[in-house]
Amino acid sequence: MRPSTALPTLALVASTLVSTVSAQICGLGICLYINENTDTIRFRMETSASRGWMGFGINTGGGTGMNGAEVFCAEKNADGSVSVSHRYASSQAIPQIISGSSLTIVANATSTANQKFVATFDRAKLSSSAQIATLSSSAAQGVIFAWGSGGLADHGSNHLATQVTLLASSNAYTQSSSSTDPNQSIPTDSTSASDTAQSSDRLRVAHGLLMFIAWCILAPAGIFVSRYMKISLGVWWFRFHIALTGVGVCALTIIAFILSLYVTPASRHFSLSDHVSGSHRVLGLIIVILTVFQVLLGVLIDRLFKPERKSTPWHDKAHWWLGRLSLLAAIANTYVGLLYYDNTYGSLTKSTTTGLYSALSILVALIAVVFGVFEYRNGATKHVAEVKLNH
Asked: Pick from 45, 285, 32, 284: which is nearest to 162 by CA?
């Protein structure tokens, strides 16, 4: 698929090169310069001339990934010229050209000479289209980078998603207003955004792993012990239950929650702009609240326990059902979290994503089978001799 916007043959007058705000964002070996003028925004993309195309996108809906991003793609043509296309990504596929959009390419600042691939172009500053992003000088926005070695096609693993404040003064740099040299050096900090994104990505993976351990391993084990092992374990069932759920699940959930807050900009902590990420955040917050409440309720139940009781009090039953609902919600949110991560950051291969979903589904099915067998054969066990355990 060939980009449709051809290079203009005339350069813009020098006065249009003067900008009021400048910003520089680099990642994945691509450097992006943004100059804000009165009515337009000038973008300048730089990368190695060995690449066939490069692109960057700005998420229009408050997300951080490809879905819902305004995308600019620059491609080298067979004759050595450069074409730039203005696109919109509605899915994890080659973005479609935005109908009626026009970019003004700065010909004397666009080149593939001297081992540099540079594209410079102007876009209207404001637009009523939902497919066009409004750049901010105060809030972090989702930005994506991608490149390929041939014609415009699937980028494979050559992509990066990060979050930056596009017009922040801290990103400002000094550049001559009359400079149109397409071979201007790429700054030495060209990997800073990539390094930051990789660090954040590791924290996101840690968040997911901690929640998986807490809710797909420790929580089912804690519920299993309390429901089926009271007689066989004696006093130890309660100690195991506390260790698995009261300590393990609660501690890992809180740590994972803190990690999620750390890697997400404050303005998007509980944003509902995207239904997948919004669902994951809201459900996650509910799970965290229920986890803390369950621990406190468990402590209260232990204090209120009476060996001579003849029936199960309501607070015990509430503890059971809240625990079951929390487990189901957390397992569901694990699936949503995988979907959110894959849609937003796209760093997993298709086979890896399929493998993770399959492994999770097998584990959930195994948990269901084990609980079903014990429920059918033994049912729930009661406190041994209805005596308060010495713990």
From this structure: 32
